[in-house]
Specification:
The protein contains seven helices and 15 strands. By secondary structure, it is α+β, with helices and mostly antiparallel strands. The longest helix is centred in the middle third of the chain and has 18 residues, at 173-190.
Length: 291
């Protein structure tokens, strides 16, 4: 069987959203690898990978830009991937943005079937095109460790009556990914809960923290038994995700009156009256969400 024809059938299976055909184009135990998989994957792991990609980009297509043999049973192909982000990526809501990503795959074949696929593309380009931040920073510098954080706001401006704090030390990078995906789904559920005000999450290495603001301690308990949070919590308690950690609820001891800057005189007003009038007589801005 012609090796180039075999590779073209492989690309056609991607565009046809046919996971069975993709796997059938590989020898038994054949592997796929690209920058997002880190290590080679095979079998059901390939199926899971393509299903997630098709879920995020249901109209995904691959256009061949060049293809040729580079040696005995070796083929190289340049491609252009196109699609529209109408499905969730890692628990994030779809952006509806179109992507156009170039890359290249290098194949080894045996008896007309693909033995290995090694793909290369700019891993930061796809998230940039759908409006996600790509941040480059050191993991650690002296006593400082760096990570990523997320803010979830409802737009509510009342003072919280309670804060819930969850901390865990993940088992490994795979567990970090699982917890982050579960946390995003849990936060989406929390946005529908009446007593939820907002939340901040942080991931620094394997350390993960979520601080959530609620209008009362009773409201914070709702999340313990509802939706995606219960699944993440189970993974923490049964040892699937975490080495150690804790959950807690903290009630308000003191919250000082808010400060608000006057755009006219530039001074800060503490605890402005209900009409939000600065001592200079100017109208103060609308209050920002508390959390």
């Amino acid at each position: 069987m012609d090796n180039i024809a075999s590779v073209r059938r492989y690309f056609a299976a991607w565009t046809d959203r046919d996971a069975d055909a993709i796997l059938a184009s590989l020898i038994e135990g054949g592997t796929y690898q690209d920058p997002s998989t880190v290590a080679p994957i095979s079998g059901d792991a390939i199926r899971d990978y393509v299903d997630r990609l098709w879920s995020a980009f249901p109209d995904l297509t691959f256009q061949e830009e060049s293809i040729g043999e580079t040696g005995p049973n070796r083929v190289a192909a340049q491609w252009l991937m196109r699609g529209t982000n109408t499905g969730s990526i890692m628990g994030l809501p779809p952006t509806g943005k179109e992507v156009s990503l170039r890359g290249a795959d290098f194949f080894t074949l045996r008896d007309g079937k693909i033995e290995t696929v090694t793909g290369y593309f700019d891993q930061g380009e796809l998230p940039r095109q759908i409006g996600l931040d790509v941040i480059v920073q050191p993991a650690q510098s002296g006593p400082f460790k760096f990570g990523i954080s997320t803010s979830v706001q409802t737009g509510k401006t009342q003072e919280p009556g309670a804060f819930s704090i969850t901390y865990l030390e993940a088992r490994d990078e795979t567990a970090v990914k699982s917890v982050r995906e579960g946390s995003r789904a849990a936060l989406a559920d929390m946005l529908k809960m009446e007593g939820f005000i907002g939340a901040v999450t942080a991931t620094i290495g394997l350390r993960m923290v979520t601080i959530s603001a609620w209008d009362s301690p009773e409201a914070s308990r709702l999340v313990m038994s509802q939706g995606a949070h219960a699944k993440v919590q189970k993974g923490m308690y049964d040892g699937s995700f975490a080495k150690h950690g804790f959950t807690s609820v903290w009630t308000k001891h003191r919250i000082n009156p808010p400060l608000m800057r006057c755009d006219t005189c530039g001074k800060m007003s503490r605890d402005p009256d209900k009409d939000r009038i600065c001592p200079c007589g100017a109208k103060l801005p609308d209050p920002a969400p508390f959390w």
